[in-house]
Amino acid sequence: MPRRRKLDTGVPWVELSTTAADWKKADPELLATMLGQIQLIRSFEETVLELAGAGLVHGPAHSSIGQEGGAVGSILTLRSTDAVNGSHRGHHQFLAKAITHVSGGRLDLGSLVDADMQAMLQRTLAEILGLAQGFSGGRGGSMHLQWLEAGALGTNAIVGGGAPLAGGNAWAQKFAGTDDVSINYFGDGSSQIGSVLESMNLAATWKTPVMFFIENNLYAVSTHASEASADTRFSVRGQGFSIPSWRVDGMDPLAVHLATQEALERMRSGEGPAIIEAEVYRFFHQNGPFPGSAFGYRTKDEEKEWRARDPLTRVAAQMQELGYATEAEVAAVRDQAKQAMTDAVGQLIEDDPEREGKRRIKPELWPDPAVVDTGIRSDASELEPLEAKEPSEIGGEWRDVKYVDAVAQTMDRRMEVDDRIVVLGEDVHRLGGGTNGATKGLAKKYGPERVVGTPISENAFFGFATGAALDGRIRPIVEFMYPDFMWVAADQVFNQAGKARHMFGDNNDLPLVLRTKVAMGVGYGSQHLMDPAGIFATQAGWRIVAASNAADYVGLMNAALALEDPVLVIEHVDLYGKADRLPEGDLDYIIPPGSAAVRRAGSDVTVLSYLTMVDHSLEAIEQTGVDAELIDLRWLDRASLDWDTIGESIKKTNAVLIVEQGASGPSYGGWLADEIQRRYFDWLDQPVERVTGGEASPSISKVLERAAIARTEEVVAGLERVRAAMGGEN
Asked: Given 29, 165, 349, 477, which residue has the most CB atoms within 10 angstroms?
């Protein structure tokens, strides 16, 4: 018979509940603040539902009524420098953090709402209504509430999407040497999401001071937790990641508070993350002013039982029993909160003169439609103090270097002068510089705090980098070993990093560089070899650079690392081993956005390309004898393209050939051709011609891989097509 031994994780997992003695021992001012916060949030939410019922809330109204105890119990003692983020149902979390910030953590029940509190409540309501005076100018609305000054990082409409961001904020707090913490709030549904579980693992591994706060309200929209997980005690997840966990009754705000204090002690002392699971109940449906029983997935008896445990009623009753407040004083608190919301509504809503008995939002409060596209990215003014140079203009001595060594040396120089820069990715700290040598020498020189090897967990480590970049105390350089892996992290790459600046009303800088390499031709097959330029070019918020030589790489990477935007830096394995040259001693110049390079002047056709296809295009031009003007785009995103150089060339040649290596479907040239034809149709004598790979992703078979991608021969064919359309040979 095999021998068996029962295994134990050795990680605490406790259920905490309060006794009468705990309530008696609690600071009366703490309980008063708890009551005031819950009442303010309750009155706010009732107002939102009332306005939603009147058709005045555009979009969802995810009420938190019934769940306030979890947010208030965990937040009311936090500092403004501590941070929180939450989910689509996050009004209560945002308000608890904002109220704590405005009040300094103490509320006077006799004078609950001062001018600053009133202004905050009105501004929050304005944001939910989509108005210009909201915290994000109305862009965030109900699901994207952010006030950085208060430590409210922004609620998140993607289930589980906020966990990596909170982890990254906590990583930046730790990197900066503080004992501040971050809390990520999410529900029972998110407890099964990969981004949450990956974030738990990474936070535990890196000992980041982040709390994963699970608001277990038992339902997704209508699916019960028991249908989603075999174990509905979702704090059990901590056992798998060595994270201590607390399970509490979320309808008891004091129990939540006590558990939070224990968790905060661990986190502030540098011991790493914590989990709290609070069992709560939303009194209304997923969205809107009706109970779940109206939709048939909950019973009225169940709802009645939970309403009897209302956290607002519980705190009020305990305070009266302890002699800290009278029934009249509790009523006065409620009246003050309701009056504050009545006043806020009065500033935003008026009678509709065109519909008797109806109300409308005051027309002058809407955002100006002219700002719809502002704030997608920075204006690049941060580059103005830096020296912009074309490498061809740099005199003096030059030295021989491999392209891949230029990659490492550029990062080395930037890390030398900016101690906020941290390099992270899979194996970047090992193998003498990662799998290709692009981080050569960095780990030895800067150590494990600034050259960080990650688990194979792109969604988590890229999300951590995004959260850290939003904080600003870390400027991450993330490496995706292959660009296809972006799909594993697509939410964090596109929904989070790409949209954050605009979505939150241009309140955020997001200085982040994502490095990756095109590896076509090396036999790694369909899931490793894509060119990501075309996908990223469709995503507002991302800038893109692609250097065809080492000297350009220096200037482009320096600009990327100085911008306050997410920048994709695309490299190519065919360039890594290429013998190249760099100016001796000068690695500080930049090549700013809007700086394409004319590699060959010509009059027959404008050839637009980037990366290795620049060299292939030069070879093809020599072979065909077509008098082509070759432009190395260098900056590829819509906002950063050098339209002046492109336009000047098109007006001269009246023909365009776009050259790229990868598959035709996700190609970069597709949208670029459309844009060129819209801008320069009157100067074109023929349709924009394109060179791409085939329809399929490259295969592992050497022969099939070559057939799937473009190189010199395909560019030759493209040039011949252009020449034929012009009427034959020159």
From this structure: 165
* Per-residue pLDDT tens digits for 363-419: 999 999 999 999 999 999 999 999 999 999 998 999 999 999 999 999 999 999 999
- Edge-to-edge strand ranges of the sheet holding 451-453: 451-453, 421-425, 475-479, 512-518, 566-572, 543-546
In degrees and rounded to multiples of 5, residue 484 shows phi and psi of: -60, -25
Q: What is the distance, to the nearest Å, from the Cα of residue 551 to the centroid of all Cα atoms in its chain?
A: 31
Q: What is the mean pLDDT of residues 100-120?
A: 97
Report whether 567 contacts 542 (CB < 8 A): yes
Could you report the per-residue pLDDT of 269-304, keeping only the tens digit for each? 999 999 999 999 998 888 888 888 889 999 999 989
Say how far residue 498 (Cα) sits from the centre of its chain. Answer: 7
Please give the Cα distance from 523 to 244 (Å, whole number).
45
What does DSSP assign to residue 220?
S
Residue 63 to residue 73: CA distance in whole angstroms: 18
* Span 51-66, average pLDDT: 93
For 216, the token pair is: 């277990």
pLDDT tier at 260, thresholds 50, 70, 90 = very high
Q: How many CA atoms lie within 13 A of 236 on its CB side?
A: 8
Q: Which residues pair with 379 in a beta bridge?
A: none
Checking phi first, is residue 479 left (phi over 0); if not, alpha (psi -120 to 50) or beta?
A: beta
Please provide residue 215's backbone torsions phi and psi, each rounded to the nearest 5 degrees. Answer: -90, 95
Tell me how far apart the alpha carbons of residues 176 and 171 are, in angstroms, rounded to a whole number.
9
What is the Cβ-side half-sphere exposure of residue 340, based on CA atoms within 13 angstroms?
A: 30
Locate the DSSP E strands across 122-259. 182-187, 210-216, 245-249
Query: Where are the strands (E) in 352-420, listed by range?
Result: 359-361, 398-402
Instruction: Say if residue 301 is exposed, middle or buried (CB neighbours under 10 Å; 0-12, 13-18, 19+).
Output: exposed
* 708 pLDDT above the threshold of 80: yes
Nearest to 649, CA basis, from 628, 670, 668, 669: 628
